[in-house]
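FW: tagging you since you asked about this chain on Friday. Here's the raw sequence from the shared folder, copied in full. Didn't touch anything.
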Amino acid sequence: MALIGLTPMIATAVGVFVICIIYSIVLSFTNSRLLPNFEFIGFAQYERLWETPRWLISVRNIWLFGFFSIAFNMIFGYLLAVFMDQRIKQEDAFRTIFLYPFAMSLVVTGLVWQWIMDPNLGFQSAVRNMGFTDFRFSPLTNEATAIYGVIVAGIWNGVGVTMAILLAGLRGVDEEVWKAARVDGIPTWKTYLFITLPMMRGAFITAFVLQCVGVVRVYDLIIAMTQGGPGISTQMPAVFVIQHISGRSNVGLGMAAATMMLLPIIVLIAIQQYFAWRSRRRAAGIGAAVATLPQAQGVKAS
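HL: got it, structure written out here
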């Protein structure tokens, strides 16, 4: 009965994800323009893709956005998790506040931060109204700093969910570990940094993979904040794909870019599955060793 109940979901997942992904990869090897066709041209779309300046800027931006947003999300997320782990008062209220940005649509997040960074409406205008007429803060209007404004919005949106995942990992640490650390006189900050942190590998991998997937598919935030501008300074691969499929009538090139976006996701999933398989194998080995221990003791006694 459970399998029958899951059949519609399985059919949808296979049809929408697996078949459509394969179809997209096939189209990346064709000369599809406005509409898909099956005029195969080999790797010509990929060669053209990596010769396109807009795509090269998109790749540079995604690496820059990914490095800073993931690094700061993991650091700030862990610090917030440590703060929440102190059994503070009104913990539920603080958890809600920290998770609220993640619950918001990325379009709303982008619009909010666009207003904050707008020189005529946001932070710069507010400070100048206080009398500091020379103050300047308009990162989204400058090609050199626009990407960093987007990074700030991405960090604000993602740090809460990272905190929630890592807090769950902290709460899963055995209480005996904390007691032993206190008995040995280990400072609390060292316990969090050198003892509990390595024990939270699963939580960190989950948070890391979730952040990486969010970085690869970032689209709404860019469209809401900058539309890929000024110029193409905040162009991202997802924006590149949508623009070429819908606006530039080049389905083949867009599908080639989408396939390149899929590769890091596959690598991340493979890494996650490898660590999960290794953990299961290690647990099975420990279980087998424990099971054979009574037999070995019986043989030794006889």
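FW: The chain has a mean pLDDT of 86.
HL: agreed, and The chain has 13 helices and no strands.
FW: great, closing this out.
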